[in-house]
């Protein structure tokens, strides 16, 4: 993942608020926001971790406190914050937490934690967005079947196979034609001369 796009803000208050939050979401995908400076170097910066929203489906509301939620979400990644609907308990179907996770990892569908009675509880985890790694070009943001390099390579391979198939068909037709003509094509051209000799 990279970051290098400057974004203008309308007011100092808006700028301060955005920078303070540090992470903005667009189409459920994270955008890392940092303050601009006159001497800043606008270069692509490689990232090995990324923040993503997770949903702890059906999590008992008694675990929605900051301490318990931090421990449970910490089993997935580094907890950053919960959304307002979770902290205000306005939506009871799941707890939503922003966590920082490494790129190109296997992301769990559930985690295990021990409750206050010493019982192991399996908690379902849903990712709102996962960083998708293309195995062809090794870039994030698209799958293999959507990779332009892969599509181009497949088209080239198909064109080569088609050309090779046409060449094989032509060779087969030439062989069939040769077999129909017989082993000695020159004998047919000499036949009229033989018939003339027999007439004398």
What features would you describe in this structure?
The protein has 200 residues and is α+β, with helices and mostly antiparallel strands. The protein has 3 domains: 1-47, no CATH class; 48-131; 135-180. It is 35% helix and 22% strand. It contains 5 helices and 7 strands; from the N terminus they run αβββαβαβββαα. The protein has helices at residues 12-21, 66-73, 84-87, 148-181, 186-199, and strands at residues 23-26, 29-32, 49-57, 78-82, 94-102, 110-114, 120-127. The protein is elongated.
Question: Summarize this, please?
Answer:
This protein has 200 residues and is of the alpha+beta class.
Structural class: alpha+beta
Helix content: 25-40%
Give the strand content.
15-25%
Distance between termini? 95 Å
Unreliable runs, pLDDT <50, ≥5 residues?
Answer: 1-6
Task: Provide the succession of SSEs.
Answer: HEEEHEHEEEHH
Q: Enumerate how many helices there are, as a single number.
A: 5
Multimeric status of the protein: single chain
How many strands? 7
- Tell me the Rg in angstroms: 34 Å
